[in-house]
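input
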Amino acid sequence: MKKILLVDDEPAVLFALSEALVDRRRGIQVVTATDGREAMAVLEAQPVHLVVTDLRMPDVDGFELLAHLRRNHPGLPVILMTALGTAEMTSRLGSAGAFECLSKPFDVAVLKRKIQDMLAQRVRGRVENISLSSFLQLLEIERKTCTLHVTAGERAGRLFFRTGKLVAAETGDLTGSDAALEI
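output
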């Protein structure tokens, strides 16, 4: 059973989307939260496979929730729902990592497809004896969305990809292109 955490402060949206996303045939269960603080409590209490969250919410908003997810659940896929303009969203999100974004209003069928795609890509594994550059080319060719954890000895870093494009990186105190080059 795959569990989706749906976060939105509007009760009607929360109810309608949770009803639309539950799919017993495919083993999709939905748990809900009305803000980022409640979502963090859900994440501590039970395993979740994917988060769908609004960005604008009172108290703890989607930006704060996304930062919490990147610190405490870095491999967890996230779909953001927003009415924000692209420029404002990009400036606020910066190098927040790999995620998908839907502009409101959106078609629920599109959201369901994104959820299925992201849950299908939830593969954990280890790759050895392949050059990083060859693996990065494979991610681009196959247009994969993922978080790549790279280790070499005691050093480690993460590269975030969305549809095959590098969107963020972090290692030690470095982020962005500086971290990508260091990795």
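quick obs: The mean pLDDT is 85.
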